[in-house]
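Task: complex structure prediction.
Instruction: return structure tokens for all chains below.
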Amino acid sequence: MNAQIITIGDEILQGQTLDTNANYLAKMLTDLSFTVERVCSIGDTKHSIVNTLDLSVGKYNLILITGGLGPTSDDITKKVLADYFDGELVENEEVLADVKKFVEARGFKLNDLNRKQALVPTSCKVIRNPLGTAPAMLFEKNNSFLVSMPGVPFEMKQIFEEKVIPELKKIMDFPTSCIKIVHTYGIPESMLAERLEDFEKELPDNLKLAYLPSPEGIKIKLFSFGGHQKRLCDLIEEQVKKLQNILGNNIFGFGDDTLEKVLAKELIAGNKKVSTAESCTGGLVGHKLTSVPGSSAYFCGGVVSYSNQVKIQTLGVKESTIENFGAVSKETVIEMAQGALNLFNTDYSIAVSGVAGPEGGSVDKTVGTTWIAIGSKDEINAFVFRFGTRRDINIRRAAATAMHLLINIIRKEKS
Amino acid sequence: MNAQIITIGDEILQGQTLDTNANYLAKMLTDLSFTVERVCSIGDTKHSIVNTLDLSVGKYNLILITGGLGPTSDDITKKVLADYFDGELVENEEVLADVKKFVEARGFKLNDLNRKQALVPTSCKVIRNPLGTAPAMLFEKNNSFLVSMPGVPFEMKQIFEEKVIPELKKIMDFPTSCIKIVHTYGIPESMLAERLEDFEKELPDNLKLAYLPSPEGIKIKLFSFGGHQKRLCDLIEEQVKKLQNILGNNIFGFGDDTLEKVLAKELIAGNKKVSTAESCTGGLVGHKLTSVPGSSAYFCGGVVSYSNQVKIQTLGVKESTIENFGAVSKETVIEMAQGALNLFNTDYSIAVSGVAGPEGGSVDKTVGTTWIAIGSKDEINAFVFRFGTRRDINIRRAAATAMHLLINIIRKEKS
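Output:
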């Protein structure tokens, strides 16, 4: 079953508002295993609404519209829908009661604008709004179901989940589907695609794969559809096992996992604590670690040793080490990690020193060169990476790589 | 001049990715005074791309496409564009060189997938990508200009601003307009609107004002259009002067300024250094300070004192102070700021301690309560704030507020 999402509002076309409604509905419909073929944002004009309806009605099983139902004059959606679906606007008693209740609850008197919100097309099924004033409206034409909903996100979400979906399930056969997100780190998209070439070739027809890259890793999305629900999810789990065999510890998590969440789980599970010694990341590793609620269970603190002097005085890095090998070196980053272990007496430490750029690069240490050391009670391991030329991306990748390294070291110790 | 934005990618249609590219381009085009009439997200299939092109080419002056150019097999946009604009795919030497350089800089060997990225349609003008592997492509047909760009946001933004806009200005008459962004901090949107009520009433007809709120402050966008370029910009400067009189030091910058960039300028101008003592922000202040290139000129380092023990041992906060007043208190945050001054011997220090939430709140110290101290050679000033209930937002606001406080203190010392 295919679907289109239409969001109405100049604030989206002018880039003043990020279209979170479309994103939310796209995710919901996909999880309900509709194929969302098109998402469109248009202005609140008769011309563009009619134009878009002409291209949609009869073509998609389901069309969802948000926005253009507010009390203000620039909202003409309802009138256009009434005409388009061969009806007219009439006052609806139930809706008027809802509007009245809503307005008076806020200590206001019902005004003409509010009253206008109780007008609904005769050609639709009214779906009352538990939160706001504008109701949702369900239309049917040429084998397309169309639902128009208010644009205020929290209103739209509640009415969609509590009222619209149950309503649609009465009149449509919802297809089955299963989705799984697999999080990878440490392997670029082109290499990932190469390593998964055969895997992709062997995928069953009712299973799709997509890559979602970012500096914090590449998500692999597995999506199966059609047939029995349980079989779909079993099918996906089989494929996930294959992926784990191919990608090993490049896979760090699933679903809503992030590097910092997974690292938090591993540290809490082992009742371990970590500290940081950050140079080029300037505190980003600490910020990531503490972005997870309850992080005080595994993070006590760190030193942002941006200058060499702080590396020496606070972390106890030897002056000679920096003189002989430089601040961005295996030797220095190892002493930084040791310094954090000593200073904070933690089970693990993360030390990062790199050339974030744009300045500071040299022939042997180009911009993006980054040394990361992971300290533990027994040993300190150092790794070098060559990221790109962009300061912000280099910093994000350095922090992400450091967290990924520690995750893998902890997991290796467990096994 | 009207425009359409088309974003390609199943990850948008399936709600995996929020379509920030469309939002960014809509904003940019609006600022360049194009009328964005339609924003569409479609899948990476020949059918839907051709279908959308048929509805767009010849109808809009400018069509921007992002996505569908990556190395993986699900990207077929380039082939479709080549056919649609009556060309064929050929290997482009310059692009191949860019791809090779990019891949090898990351320590990988060029593979067939990378090589495919050097294929470009004969019917387009190639716009090389300074950051990534996929180039942008400029086509023309039936009085429509169409630009296809990579989907990775930071790549797309840079190539659009640095390469595509200049290219388009050569071949299109951009309407005249002038824009100025005024950055404010420390005043909520409702209060801002109240204080600017008369100012807005008196605005000339060809000048528009918009508020763009975020945890890092509210941007005021002044936008004038039509007539002579210089007159438009003069007009805006007049209004900016009025704004400065009304808002005073709630205005911290203009244009591309950010709190961290402005603070960097102030510190460098006065040849001053700053250090940090962060608790609830976990390193975000340090990360912000070091996100600006050349930050070693004014930032030497800091301590992330997440646990009380680190506050005591590393920063020298008195155990009794934390016992008597708590970790989130005026007394503790002042001793943290003093500790950073002592430890790092800087001109200024920033100390932050708050209840980020969701746990840890109490009756007198609810979630969001945050103490910030700014230390200088002569004195240490502490301030308390009550932010909201969301951990991530509280942390961002705490870091932003701390930077804004230091900016104002430095500026006060100067005047």
